[in-house]
Each structure stands twice: as structure tokens, then as C-alpha cells.
Amino acid sequence: MKLLTVARDLRRRKARERVDRFVAEGIRAVEELLKSPIGVEGALIAPRLADTPRGRALRAAIGDRKIVVQEVTDDEFASAADTENPQGILAIAVIPDRTLAAVASHGPARILVLDAVQDPGNVGTLVRTAAALGATATLALPGTVDLWNAKVVRSAMGAHFHHSCLTGSWDDLRMLGAETALTVWGADAAGEPLDGLEPPERLALVVGNEGGGLSSESRSRADRLIALPVTSAVESLNVAVAAGIILYELRR
Fold first, then answer.
1. Which residue, 11, 23, 56, 163, is most buried by CB atoms nearer than 10 A?
2. Which residues pair with 90 in a beta bridge?
3. CATH fold for domain 3-94
4. Is residue 86 within 8 Å of residue 46, measured between CB atoms?
5. In whole angstroms, what is the distance from residue 207 CA to residue 221 CA?
6. Is residue 24 within a helix (H) or strand (E), and if so which, with residue range?
7. Distance CA 86, CA 7 (A)
């Protein structure tokens, strides 16, 4: 396997979906990946990785794990990298085979649902926040940026490797709800104030697009629309900030 060719190809969503592989780029991301149970198939390494003690330690850890390595020039690495200032390390790994039914079919559940959230930085932050606040899974509906996009993976800072990140549809939520009584709340500025509401044991929280908010389908399918009380000086909050506050309140 020519890792450079594969890494270049995995910049495309269709390629990631076709082979169920993703790229983790950067020292921090690869360090976290190596701590997880996710299978690592290879690493692309450029000379600049050896510029720091941390980079050299990571190179040694990859060698200890007997992971296949391809050494490339800095220019070759840049052709596969997704960052402006690459750190010289990129790993190719297997996207975990998880389903919504498998991770959330029994017991209490908090599922964060992303409805056409398109900014990779926001989505990475949402995944990390969901993991930090004990959400069962994060589900991306159609129109949402790929959860395994390299920028999303980097923004989540390792959360993907321990938190269930899934791509699905309203049909998946509907089937899960029909089988296990899942309630759906949608976050919307015009919804009921979250203060005082008693959340159900099994809940899917839907957050919407950065500019347009919830889609009409999400509004129609939600059992309840809820809102964070904010001052009149601010129209709305960033989607990742709002989701974090709501998940924290639900946890309490």
C-alpha cells in the first residue's frame, strides 16, 4: 500500500466512505489515536517530525507498535496534509464500525444530533463537547460536514477515538425511537426555556445549521423545541456553545 497515494485520496469524503478509513493529522491527534482501540494501518512521516522532542518520541512510539511507515519529503507530505503548517505526521486509520442501535438501544441515552452543521471547526468542537459531557453518541444528519473530515478530527482533539461518531438519518432515529421510546428535543431560539424542564431518560438533542438553524424537517419531527434564555442584546449563540450549555444542563 502506497500510503502517500492513499492519504491524498482520503482528503475526499467519497474515498473515506468507500474504504471506511480516515486520516488523523498532527502530533496531538496521532498521540491520542495511538492510545485508542482504533486500528492504525499506516503513518506518513516527513523530516520535520524530528524537529521536536515530542515528535521524535511519537516516531519511536510508532516504531514500537510496528506500524507501517512511509518516509516522504516535506513537499510530498504537504500534498496530502490538510493543514497550512504540517507537523510532519499523518496516520491512516479504520473508521469504527458503530451503529446507532448498537450504542444507544438500551438504558439512558443522550444523543447529540447535528442538522446540517457545516463548519468543520464547529463540528469538531461539538464532538469533543458531547464526549466531555457524557453524551452517548453524536449523529450527523445529511447536510452536515463529514464527521471524519481531517479538520473535524483535528478540532475534536481525540474525542472521535473514544466517543461514538455516527452518520445517519431521521429514519435511524425514528426506528430507534419506535423500539426504545426515544424523545427528540430541538434547540431553537423560539422554543420553550430550558429552565425547569425535566429531561426524559432517553433523549436526542438536535442542533441546527450555523446560519439557518433547524431544518423544517427537524422542527416537524421534534417532540419539543427548547431554548436557552439569553439577553435581548444577543440574538443567538454559536451552535457549539449552545449545545455545550444544554448538554451540561441536561447532565445536571
1. 23
2. 25, 44
3. 60s Ribosomal Protein L30; Chain: A; (3.30.1330)
4. yes
5. 13
6. strand 21-25
7. 14
C-alpha span between 109 and 105 (Å, rounded): 8
Cα-based angle 142, 130, 127 (whole degrees, multiple of 5): 50
* pLDDT, tens digit (0-9, with 9 covering 90-100), for 180-190: 899 999 999 88
The residues spanned by each domain of the chain are 3-94, 100-251
Report CA 163 to chain centroid distance, whole Å.
8
pLDDT tens digits along 92-111: 999 999 999 999 988 999 99
Q: pTM, whole model, 2 decimals?
A: 0.94
C-alpha cell, 190: 423560539
- Secondary structure (H, E, C), 49-105: HHHCHHHHHHHHHHHHCCCCEEECCHHHHHHHCCCCCCCCEEEEEECCCCCHHHHHC
Strand duo 89-94 + 21-25: pairing: antiparallel
Is residue 24 a contact partner of residue 93, using CB atoms and an 8 Å limit?
Answer: yes
Would residue 134 be called left, alpha or beta, if left means φ above 0 and alpha means ψ between -120 and 50 degrees?
Answer: left
